[in-house]
Amino acid sequence: MKALVAVKRVIDYNVKIRVKADKTGVETANVKMSMNPFDEIAVEEALRLREAGIVSEIIAVSLGAAQCQETIRTALAMGADRGILVQTDAELQPLAVAKLLKAVILQENPEIVIIGKQAIDDDCNQTGQMLSALLGWPQATFASKIKISDGHAEVTREVDGGLETVSIKLPAVITTDLRLNEPRYASLPNIMRAKKKPIATTTPQALGVDVTPRLVVLKVEEPAKRQGGHKVGSVAELVDKLKTEARVI
Amino acid sequence: MAALVVAEHDNRALKPATLNAVAAANEIAAGEVDILVAGKDCRPVAEAAAKIAGARKVLLADDTAYEHGLAENVAPLVVKLAEHYSHLLATATTSGKNLMPRVAALLDVMQLSDISAVVSPDTFVRPIYAGNALATVQSRDPVKVITVRGTAFPPVEATGGSAAIEPVETAGETGLSEFVGAELSKSERPELTSARIIISGGRGMQSGENFHLLETVADKLGAAVGASRAAVDAGFVPNDYQVGQTGKIVAPELYIAVGISGAIQHLAGMKDSKVIVAINKDEEAPIFQIADYGLVGDLFKILPELADELERRK
């Protein structure tokens, strides 16, 4: 079966972000960009399913500016077979991304779609659920284990109280949680090989999707700073302060 | 304007996080807040919901299809009810996060995820970049689908109301997915997201066995036990202990971070706590910069001492 993974280009998780002085957003110029860590886990899971003989081809899709090519190249260097870039300079919100992915999926007909549970920039945690709704497919979010057999996926999900297992009919959308796997690093030969792998480019217009944002960002600000940094000298002093000063115990 | 809050429950009891979502709904549409209880044999939950202060009515959808809260089945029900409401809300817990985007997509609207403040009925504040920035966003959609960051809205009273319970027609089973089973952590301690005091351990705990040192202190304080992602990744404790950007967001009265260095990822989950205590042997650890009370030293000495001191001064 074919697998489709979606990979988002985000500010690298190690970068300390800076809010722009004019409050229009977060500084992205000259900032290191990487693949969203949860999407790396999605690519890795697809690779493992291919290594297990379940998946035959892996398509990596990214949506956004021309530089998203680099993110697709990373997925190809990890082992994905080919890429699709939906290129646009427009701001894409999760509903628009889900519609664009649906359009690509209707052309490619994958049986399994794996994407990160959330992107670490907007922290929305929406795209996978929206995509499966638009396709009328089942969803398994926050996956920590995936077992495929007989046209079904048995997925263990990370939920607030522990773990939950659901069985969903394929085709389906699965979103990844942290403990699903540890993504591999791309080796140098694979990075070289990835340069020859094909990336097709399309646009929202060609896919017939209106991507007009539904949410308008009025401003982006820094949160209030916490006043911390006080030290105490002993356990007795700590308990004393918590009882008499902070009055929380 | 009217708001529908999707209650979170396990068919027996209402989860306290629902009270935070109702609080947010009250800021939007006070007096016109209804609560949906979808489950199986879940009348006791509806009865509890009817007592929530400020609830107008409780919609009860009792059907096998809703027993395990599968999003594929519950979303069409919420969509069916949506025409009566300007706002649909749920808590930003794993169940709300699983359900609401599916609802939003079926209604062809964007979701407002994890809101931390209501500015006006169409404008909300939400944290982005793990809480390192706050975005004020305005929705252009006719229906606002919202998940609520519980810690940002003090819960409404669980009692005092007397809303009517109204059965609603169910939307049936989609047959797309099936519940297989659950392994829920059993604990006598309070739940992380509703605990008044939390004590969390990080990589500095060195092993899962050493968490008993935290548990001893937790039991003296009536606290919940949490962990950093590093401690979870190291296999010390299960993932549902995790506090942080990718785990649970908490804001207790008192948060005690033990052997936690203070990665951005962890701070994102706890920095809104009222009082923060940090115990760490590395005095340069970033956690101390945000701690109200920092104690530098060996946690293996400090934790037993802390347990004794709490016992002594009870």
SSE map:
The complex is a heterodimer of chains A (249) and B (314).
Chain A: E1 2-6, E2 9-11, E3 33-35, H1 37-51, E4 57-64, H2 68-78, E5 82-87, H3 94-108, E6 112-116, H4 127-135, E7 139-149, E8 152-159, E9 162-169, E10 172-176, H5 188-194, E11 199-202, H6 204-207, E12 215-221, H7 235-244
Parallel strand pairs in A: 1-4, 1-6, 4-5, 5-11, 6-10, 7-10
Antiparallel strand pairs in A: 2-3, 7-8, 8-9
Helix pairs in contact in A: 2-5, 3-4
Chain B: E1 3-6, H1 17-29, E2 33-39, H2 43-50, E3 55-62, H3 71-81, E4 87-91, H4 94-106, E5 111-115, E6 117-120, E7 123-128, E8 133-139, E9 144-148, E10 164-167, E11 177-184, E12 197-201, H5 211-221, E13 224-227, H6 229-233, E14 254-258, H7 264-270, E15 275-280, H8 287-290, E16 293-296, H9 299-312
Parallel strand pairs in B: 1-2, 1-4, 2-3, 3-10, 4-9, 5-9, 12-13, 12-14, 14-15, 15-16
Antiparallel strand pairs in B: 6-7, 7-8
Helix pairs in contact in B: 3-4, 5-9
Instruction: Report, as a whole number of angstroms, the end-to-end distance of chain B.
Output: 50 Å
Q: Which spans of chain B of ≥5 residues are poorly predicted at pLDDT below 50?
A: none
The helix-strand sequence of chain B is EHEHEHEHEEEEEEEEHEHEHEHEH
Instruction: Please identify the structural class of chain A as seen in this structure.
Output: alpha/beta
How would you describe the oligomerization state of the chains in this entry? heterodimer
Class based on secondary structure composition and strand pairing of chain B = alpha/beta
> How helical, in percent, are the residues of chain B?
25-40%
Can you characterise this structure?
- Chain A is globular and about 65 Å long.
- In chain A, a hairpin with a 2-residue loop joins strand 8 and strand 9 (162-169).
- Chain A has seven helices and twelve strands.
- Chain A has helices at residues 37-51, 68-78, 94-108, 127-135, 188-194, 204-207, 235-244, and strands at 2-6, 9-11, 33-35, 57-64, 82-87, 112-116, 139-149, 152-159, 162-169, 172-176, 199-202, 215-221.
- Chain A is of the alpha/beta class.
- Helix content of chain B is 27%, strand content 28%.
- With 314 residues, chain B is of the alpha/beta class.
- A seven-stranded parallel sheet of chain B has the order 5-9-4-1-2-3-10, sandwiched between helices.
- In chain B, strand 15, helix 8 (287-290) and strand 16 form a beta-alpha-beta unit.
- Chain B is elongated and about 60 Å long.
- Chain B is built from nine helices and 16 strands.
- At the A-B interface, helix 3, helix 4, strand 7, strand 8 and strand 9 of A face helix 3, helix 4, strand 5, strand 7 and strand 8 of B.
- Strand 12 of chain A pairs antiparallel with strand 8 of chain B, so a sheet runs across the interface.
